[in-house]
């Protein structure tokens, strides 16, 4: 049982660190949270000091969906359900929703995004 737990922890750590490939050399990670992008793709919502993107691993490759750079973020809406939360994020170019997020992670991320939006107005 201990070996299964160790393997699960190692897999989670390695999966969580893979999105670092998409960070610039001068970018800093602010927050990341697991979720489902527009009800289709499971992955991580990643907030850096420059941009917000969704990282996922498919059968073919690892990839990201750029949601917005900080100046292009317009609004964020937090919606709580019984077991989890969702965020709806609007930017100047697109709107998306991240569902099935941990309630605590979604709340913390929405607070950080709202602060960034206020700073860039």
What does the model show?
The protein is α+β, with helices and mostly antiparallel strands. It has helices at 2-17, 103-119; strands spanning 29-37, 41-48, 51-57, 62-69, 73-80, 85-91, 95-101. The radius of gyration is 15 Å and the shape is globular. Residues 1-15 have low confidence and may be disordered.
Summarize the structure.
By secondary structure, this protein is α+β, with helices and mostly antiparallel strands. Helix content is 27%, strand content 45%. It has a seven-stranded antiparallel β-sheet, covered by helices on one side.
Helix-strand layout with pairing:
Layout: H1 2-17, E1 29-37, E2 41-48, E3 51-57, E4 62-69, E5 73-80, E6 85-91, E7 95-101, H2 103-119
Antiparallel strand pairs: 1-2, 1-7, 2-3, 3-4, 5-6, 6-7
Features:
alpha+beta, disordered N terminus, 7-stranded antiparallel β-sheet, 121 residues, PH-domain like
According to CATH, what is the topology? Answer: PH-domain like
Please give the CATH architecture: Roll
**Largest sheet geometry:** 7 strands, antiparallel
The poorly predicted ranges are: 1-15
Largest sheet, spatial ordering of strands: 4-3-2-1-7-6-5
Discrete helix count: 2
User: What gap, in angstroms, lies between the N and C termini?
Assistant: 52 Å
């Amino acid at each position: 049982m201990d070996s299964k737990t160790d393997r699960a922890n190692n897999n989670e750590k390695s999966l969580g660190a893979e999105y670092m490939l998409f960070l610039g050399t001068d970018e800093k990670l602010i927050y990341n949270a697991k979720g489902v992008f527009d009800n289709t793709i499971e992955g991580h919502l990643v907030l850096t000091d420059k941009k917000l993107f969704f990282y996922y691993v498919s059968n073919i490759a690892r990839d990201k969906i750029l949601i917005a750079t900080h100046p292009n973020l317009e609004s964020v809406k937090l919606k709580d359900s019984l077991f989890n939360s969702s965020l709806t994020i609007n930017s100047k170019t697109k709107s998306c929703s991240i569902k099935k997020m941990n309630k605590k992670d979604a709340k913390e991320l929405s607070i950080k995004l709202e602060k960034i939006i206020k700073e860039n107005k």
